[in-house]
Sequence to fold (289 residues):
Amino acid sequence: MLAPRLLAPRLLAAAVMSGLLSLVSPSEALAQRDVLLNICNETGFSVAIASAYRTTAADDRTLRSWFLVEPGQCLEGAVNNVVGATLDVHVMSGEWRWPARTSDAVYCTPAGSTFALATGEPCSGARQARNYIRLPIGASRYRGIGQVDYRVRCESLSAEDAALCVGAPRDERGMAQIVRTLEVCHGGQREVEAVVLLDRTSGGFELAARQTLSAGECADLYRGFPPGNRVFVGTVGRNLDGGSLGACLPETADGPVLADGGVCDATRNVRLNAHDFRPNVSRFTAYLD
Fold:
């Protein structure tokens, strides 16, 4: 009966040593290695990628930006001297960001290329706080080289942004154009019915929004990509001033909006003002009197 009692400590010691070895084995992850960034762009526009990773046993991370990836392509690149089992990634295009909903880390990231120590908030200079997702470093097909996998998809955005993301126009760099948001504020004393119209290539206008605004009320009435970055804002039932731009709303919900030819009744008549979004301006406020 003594033998089992004598063996038990030995078995326990073996188990402890095995556990220690399993804890020590990740020390291999503390050795520097190259890591492939297998980040695939499944959107219809180019995206820019930044990464942050450890190069020593300390918690400090090195920040590298930006890697540009064309639509339908995967990043063919690597970061060097990576230490640890994770790597942080941020993706952007236009005003959209991945990760879109949650983040594992926030780093102050410059608009231009950088290869420097990653810093947290508060951000200084031209650096902007950006959300990063922490991804595990797996094995690649190359011995001693790690790999991070990530997919950039429109579906990862909010439902509203996902709908805009699909088919979004591209800017001169190939990135997604910024989404334009139009706020309309009513400064008059009476309730009005405000409308937002867009140009149609076939002539006339497209009705983008129609909403009643109380005196002093403001509301976001449009968000999207207006043709030529121009929107037309007006109120229903207003008489046209001499030379004012006007439109005639349809009698049915799916009917066309026509440029006023003088045959529109007052209940469908709209006096319009044109407003242009300037480059890199994502939000504009139009005022009604």
Residues 2-24 form the longest helix (23 residues). Helices lie at 2-24, 159-165.
